[in-house]
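In response to reviewer comment 3 from the previous cycle, which asked for concrete evidence that the modeling workflow produces usable outputs, we include below a single protein chain processed end to end. The sequence was submitted unchanged, and the resulting structure tokens are shown without manual editing.
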Amino acid sequence: MSPRQFLRPGMANMIARILRETGLEPRFLDLEITESLLMKDVEGGIATMRVLKAIGVRLSIDDFGTGYSSLNYLKQFPIDQIKIDRSFLHEIAASQNDAAITLAMIAMAHSMRLTVIAEGVENETQLAFLRANHCNEIQGYHLSPPVSPREIPALFARGFA
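The workflow returned the following structure tokens.
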């Protein structure tokens, strides 16, 4: 969600209404919120996230590791998963620091019972590192470039699900 959308008054009520109108089960809706967005209004963000979680919506912190949040705030966010920003993966094979930070994020998230998704996976080296270190899911060009909605069934048929 964009900061403007997330910070809009009544946003959680609007999402609840849309879920009722469409019949979509809330557990199938995952809203991605950037780490930096939450730092604009931490208490308001936490309150909104709690309402969304009460509805049953899943919440993800997008671009994790690039914002300015403290770990103290992270433990208060009612989230389901973190998405590790692609900037940590770009040089993961060559940079001990990037590898160490990525390992720490994966371990921390798992100890908090969160799912970990790595964004921007572009090659087999990155994929192997993430697999070896138990990253739950990946996104990126290594799997597929962006596709139109009508191309998605073909991806599933090839086993990209």
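Residues 96-111 form the longest helix (16 residues). We consider this sufficient to address the reviewer's concern, and the full set will be provided in the supplementary archive.
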